[in-house]
## 1
Amino acid sequence: MDRPLVEALAGFVAYMTDERRCSPRTVRAYGDCLRTLVNFAHGKDVRTVRAVDLRLMRAWLATYADRSPGWRQQMVSAARTWWRWLARTGVATSTPPDLMAMPRVPRRLPRTVLSPAVMRRIVESPDESPKGLRDRAVMEILWGSGLRVSELCALDLRSVRLDEGMVHVVNGKGGKDRRVPMTRAAVRAVRRWLEVRPDVQGERALFTTVPVRNVVPARISVREVQDRVKEHGAAAAHPELHPHAFRHAFATHLMDRGCDLRSVQAMLGHTRVSKTAIYLHTSVEKLSRVHRRALAKGLNRRPER
């Protein structure tokens, strides 16, 4: 049975929220993309699902030709997911988005990855204050376990098993759970933070803000982690440092030390191994540079008589 686009979109958003249990960020991103499609269709006097065809879909996407390929790829992906759900529920009789070409996104390698020595210097830079002990523990986990900053902020006290040296990521990207090992340095840092962590009744967060005047400590935010990381990075002559750089360093340093691709993929929580493979490429590039330098020295050396 055909349905108005607005009504169909509301049903899809409810499905993503209640049944698929997608993260609020994913639901918001898909909703924003699909609302542009609904508004575009209304502008063409198309108001129901079955009145939408491939030509309208392509015209909608063409209006965003100035946007990045990644942004347009997300729009096509959102439209495909919506229309497949509409087909499964009997609303749509065809799936025009499946016939649209997916915009190609050039593979971007991580920016320059900081060396283990530089990362260690940054991670050990905080002082012995409660905020410093928290920041040290935060950065140890970001680097030692490769968590996304949103995953780190969502950690509860029960998420870490210090005796086992494991951190349990619940409802990570894509709604997936995973267990990731912690380094010994991270375990020590978390223990020290827990000794000074504010004891707030009902607060389950592993990482909280520190008491300031009459403000009750609460779960640390992504923005605060970004600001604290940037501040410690600036003190070490790396003012553009961001939390995701720790994740890049985690993966690259593991690959440099011979860790297999599938294990790194599992620890990062990547659905597709192709996303993890960029770190293999970075590692191979580094090996190639070392090889070229060594070979150049050998070729330039004077032969022995």
## 2
Amino acid sequence: MSKLNQAKRNAAARAVEYVTSGMLVGLGTGSTAAFAIKLISDRIRLEDLSIQGVPTSRATAQLAVEHGIPVLEDFSHVDLTIDGADEVDGAGRLIKGGGGALTREKIVAAASTREIIIVDETKCVQQLGRFPLPVEITPFGRHYAFKRLKDLGCEVSMRQRNGYPIQTDNGNLIVDCAFNKIVEPARLCDEINVIPGVVENGLFIGLTDLVFVGFKDGHTEAHHISIQKKTGTELLTAKASNPGREARD
């Protein structure tokens, strides 16, 4: 296993420790979340852990079932969600959607009592925006949504595979918006979501409770996001030289 994948697995292992029997657990989408699913499966097999999973994508549902995790897609509340991110800043704000599952991921996150984000060190940034922001839009009127998104000051591109637009699990399209830097994430999130034809965007604001960051040198850091951090501007850089600033494991 590469050092980067080991870092992802280490972060996932710390998050999976929070899973207890009887929980309804949100299962994220992506390579890091996949480690968590496999580790939960190990606990079910070795510890007789009894949980149900809420998958955030069809791919995640398939992976969960393959690993013996019963899944549920009709819910009003989720106890704990473990998911990855494409970018995370020190206030626990995220860019998600690189895997195209952003709408379902946000629904599950919003329904969760606790949202734990697991990332490797390369996903930690001082300012969001280096990773193009995914936005899910309806096929109908997509050129109008394109225009309105461009008016916000970004370069917009349709996400494609083999020359054809990628369709989400919800039957919609994904466009990637290159802002380079996002100065006011909460404001931008609202501005995008009022555009007719936009289903959801990949900015996750005020949803994160805890972040585990795995490092290629083998250690893991835990970053607890307070209410103030969720709405504030304090920034975290995982590569900071002062480990005393945050809990370090």
